[in-house]
Amino acid sequence: VQESFGNQSFRMERKTIDLEQGWDYMQTGITKLKRILEGLPEPQFDSEQYMMLYTTIYNMCTQKPPHDYSQQLYDKYREAFEEYINSTVLPALKEKHDEYMLRELVKRWSNHKVMVRWLSRFFYYLDRYFIARRSLPPLNEVGLTCFRDRVYNELHSKVKDAVIALVDKEREGEQIDRALLKNVLDIYVEIGMGQMERYEVDFESFMLLDSASYYSRKASSWIQEDSCPDYMLKSEECLKKERERVAHYLHSSSEPKLVEKVQHELLVVYANQLLEKEHSGCRALLRDDKVDDLSRMYRLYHKIAKGLEPVANIFKQHVTAEGNALVQQAEDTATNQAANTASVQEQVLIRKVIELHDKYMVYVVECFQNHTLFHKALKEAFEIFCNKTVAGSSSAELLATFCDNILKKGGSEKLSDEAIEDTLEKVVKLLAYISDKDLFAEFYRKKLARRLLFDRSANDDHERSILTKLKQQCGGQFTSKMEGMVTDLTLARENQTSFEEYLGNNPAANPGIDLTVTVLTTGFWPSYKSFDINLPSEMVKCVEVFKGFYETKTKHRKLTWIYSLGTCHLNGKFDHKPIELVVSTYQAAVLLLFNTTDKLSYNDILTQLNLSHEDLVRLLHSLSCARYKILVKEPSTKTVSQTDSFEFNAKFTDRMRRIKIPLPPVDERKKVVEDVDKDRRYAIDAAIVRIMKSRKVLGHQQLVSECVEQLSRMFKPDIKAIKKRMEDLITRDYLERDKENANMFRYLA
Predict the structure, then answer these.
(1) In what order do the strands lie in the sheet with 658-660?
(2) What are phi and psi of 454, to 5 degrees?
(3) Is the pTM of this model over 0.90?
(4) Which residues form the signal peptide (predicted)?
(5) Which residues pair with 600 in a beta bridge?
(6) Which terminus of the chain faces fewer neighbouring Cβ atoms within 10 Å, N or C?
(7) Residues near 33 by Cβ (< 8 Å), separated by ≥ 6?
(8) In contact, 178 and 248? CB cutoff 8 Å
(9) Mean pLDDT for the stretch of residues 382-392
(10) Which run of H or of E encompasses 99?
(11) What's the pLDDT tens digit per position in 143-175?
């Protein structure tokens, strides 16, 4: 059987098939295929029919010339499609419109792809050999090109209009057949055969124009009717729906273009009107703490180039206005109230500024997603009002006083340890906004000195903690002296223990009274006035005993006694009862004079103690004119003059057995500012020399700007001060002006 089948097959190969006869046979197969596609009653191809059709083409292409009909079959393959399109497909499409036309198109395109798939299988031999050798378009491409040239090119404009009409219907809330649109738009993509040009040029560009026009109309009415939050809600919803639209039926490449169009029409065109809406714009949202709406504003505008800049600008203006209002409020209160209440108000101001910072930092982190623009806006806003003075006090001083209040015993801020740590953290953050950090450091150092020396510090751990925070924020140089002060106190305690051991081992060196000496390192501590006061004999002995002890430890250090910082406990033997008096060393020196005489004139005291008029007036005022009148003054007036005389008040009494007699406070502000100005001169000199040493030759303007840049971490240098220091350095032969160009400077090594 196999042999006879083989012989029969061989004889078939030998028989030449002419073109007309072969094509007639192929037409039966093509007609059958068309009937199947049209849904007419027709059985499917079985494998024998498929093989016969394939073999017919194979035989017609492998016959010897002139019976090799490859070229003619290639042409007829295309003609088969053209004939089917012209006779059946186009008439069916032209009689339908709108959505019905789209459905018909989807059906026809689907059928066409099936027809291409079957015919290209029948004609497969052409693809393998003839087309490959001649470099002709493959069968699949020829089939699809027929549809593009005959159907797509004629109808794509109508199809595009029908699709866009349906999209707009959906935008207006009507239900549409999304699957249909997806299938239609797939035709635009597939017809490009790997290229997106057809989809982009014939559909997408028109769809984007229509979308822009649609949202332009919507926006123009919404901006008039809606509040800012309502407008943003609608915009967010529209953008969400457009993204869904892409997911459901548009090509994914359309999403960024479509979103950009919608954003432009809804958010860019009306940005100013929206943000500046009087009762509901960005300012109103900030004023009324509308956190959700502000978050939405950020979400909508952060994807738009420079979209957040106006929002950040309004945020900065709002925070600045709130900060300025706090400063003004504190200023007004300080002007209208007594000095002690004013200082409380200044403390309240710092607390409120911290709260303001906390509040808007939450906005920056949560509403504005930590965006750098808003961090910058917050920083610039705080820099504006954090550098204003309140009732003559700079913000640097206020901040230092606030810290002092938290860290000293009996301060007005009663907080838990965690709350103190938290507050100190926030204070250090505020310091970042203050331009005169060196002024803060000096005020802080003065107050730290008082806390340490008079045992007013509430907790050593907190003292060290804030120094660590300041060091992280401003660098090691900023805190080196303060850290030295804290260390000094620890060493001083050890020193005192050694002194007490020394006294125990040397009975001859008894000072006669309990003596505690705190030895400090000059460079770490603020400068204090030191006089050669004529000490009472009891105190002279103390000084000599301690000197003897200190010389056993070191011979290379000189002790300078700062009596103004000393404290004495005296027993006052009054008629009613003895009272312990806690006074300063100077006050004690005055009072001890009355152990040997009952009455002394102002000039007697001045001569015996060798004090300045200014200091003596303060001392005598504290002892004779203030709350505790230990001395009786003649005449009995509220002020001390050089003609007054003083007498021990034996009749003095008080319900307490121990009283502290304070000295009138000295305003240290002027001294601190003078010290800081002096330090700044040195800092400017050092910066100029550093810059010129590395650059050798530099123009005036560049030298000034580099100097400002180097110093601005600690303070805002005054341009005039820099110029003055430059002139001074020229006279001291560190710099010289260029002989030909007065604006150029040279470094003199």
Answers:
(1) 567-573, 578-584, 658-660
(2) -100, 20
(3) no
(4) none
(5) 646
(6) N
(7) 45, 115, 118, 119
(8) yes
(9) 88
(10) helix 98-122
(11) 888 988 888 888 889 999 999 999 999 999 999
> What is the token pair recorded at 407?
């860290």
Tokens of 713: 């971490």
Which amino acid is it at 483?
A: E
Q: Tokens for 525?
A: 């501590």
Closest of 611, 601, 683 to residue 634, by C-alpha: 601
Q: Which of 267, 265, 289, 285 shows the shortest CA–CA distance to 277?
A: 285
pLDDT for res 380: 94
Q: Is 406:449 a contact under the CB 8 Å cutoff?
A: no
Q: Is residue 127 within 8 Å of residue 120, measured between CB atoms?
A: yes
Nearest in space to 33 (alpha carbons), one of 93, 77, 73:
77
| % pLDDT > 70, the chain | 96
Distances (CA, A) of 623 to 562, 588, 602, 632, 721: 21, 10, 13, 9, 45
Residue with tokens 């007054």: 644
Can you read off the two tokens belonging to residue 670?
A: 């002027």
334-370 per-position pLDDT tens digit = 777 755 555 677 788 999 999 999 999 999 999 999 9
The whole-number average pLDDT for the span 423-430 is: 92
How many residues belong to the chain?
Answer: 749
**CA dihedral of 90, 96, 102, 106, whole degrees rounded to 10:** -40
pLDDT digits (tens, 9 = 90+) for 440-465: 998 999 999 989 988 888 888 999 99
Q: What pairs with residue 735 in β-bridges?
A: 747
Dihedral class, residue 369 (left if φ above 0, else alpha if ψ from -120 to 50, else beta): left
Q: Are 323 and 381 in contact (CB under 8 A)?
A: yes
Q: Which two tokens stand for residue 442?
A: 């000096």
Classify residue 596 as exposed, middle or buried by CB count within 10 Å of its CB (0-12, 13-18, 19+).
exposed
